[in-house]
Each structure stands twice: as structure tokens, then as C-alpha cells.
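Running co-folding for zinc ion.
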Amino acid sequence: MLIVSDDRAVVEADLAAGRLVCPRCRAGVLGGWGCSRLRAVRTSLGVRRLRPRRGRCRERSCRATHVLLPDVCLARRRYVAEVIGAALLSAGLEGYRRAGERLGVPGETVRDWRQRFRARAELIASHFLRWARALDAMFDPPVGQGSAAVDAMEAIGRCTRVASLRLGRHSPWSWASALTAGGLLEINTSPPWPVPE
Ligand SMILES: [Zn+2]
């Protein structure tokens, strides 16, 4: 799976120009390879149906196919990253049941997202700070607040601002998805997060 733009025209142009590098072999580029299955994701406005494009590695020895998931999504989550992000951001301000009611998400789901985020908060913080430094050599890292989850949120906020300035404007949670290969909340099941080169 590869996180790509939510704009299908951009994805088609990237495929045509060979700008999408295969996440498996990291040598070949992807060409278009039909579409993946239809899926429904929940947004703050209701249900959105999308059928992600699929790409296939042009490298003869690889030929892996990948789902090209729009950056509004996280892998294996039925809610868009924006909704999940809102639930994470309000941790400490409102309980999971209340946040769930406000966002139209079962409370237990909000609790699960928050637990996953807390469980890997230090990893998340260092990952995003690493990206921020790679994107901006003058990046001034934030001072720790004494809470790993708060620090992780701050790191995401700072890093995604830098990414928007340097690489083009996207919503913070779209950047958070792109910079973790959709695996912001995954701990064991996702391939390694992309690292800056
Ligand atoms: Zn490949």
C-alpha cells in the first residue's frame, strides 16, 4: 500500500510520469494497474465511497501491486484521518464517550484510537521530529511538556506545518498519514514507516 494524493488527477499524472516509487523494492516505479475494491470511509459529513487506484511495480524482478490509498485515509481504518485526529486531539479535554458522540464515532473506538496513540507516543514524536529536521535544517524542536502523548501531538503539528510549507499544502492529518504510510495507529502490522533520505 502507498499513500497518495486524494486528487485522482494528481495520482494519474504521478503514475504516468513514474513518480511513485515502489514501497517494496524501492527501485522500480509504479504504473497503473486497475483499481482496488470499493470501500466506504466515514467522514465528519457522512459516508464517502472510494475505489482507490492500484499500481504495479514496473521492475521485472518485483512486479508487486500496491493499493494507492488517498491521504485522507489511514490504513485499515474505517474513519478518515481527520476524524481520528480530532478524537486524538481532544484527549485530555473530553472523555472518549463524549468525543465519540460529538464526532459520530462509537466511544469504544475513540478509546481504542487514543490507547494506540498513547502506547506509541514516543515513537510517533521521534518519527515526526526526524522528518521535520530532514525537511528544514533550521527546525527548532519543541520543548517537551512532560507528557508523551502531548509531545507526540506537538511533533505532528510542527512537522506537518513544515511539510506543508516545503512540499505543498495538505491538511495536517493527510500529512500524518503520508509520513507514516497510513500506519499512524498501527504498531505491529504495518511495514516500517517511511524515513527521510
Ligand atoms: Zn517493486
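Result summary
Residues 22, 24-25, 28, 57, 59, 62, 64 surround zinc ion (CB under 6 Å).
The two ends are 20 Å apart (CA to CA).
Job closed.
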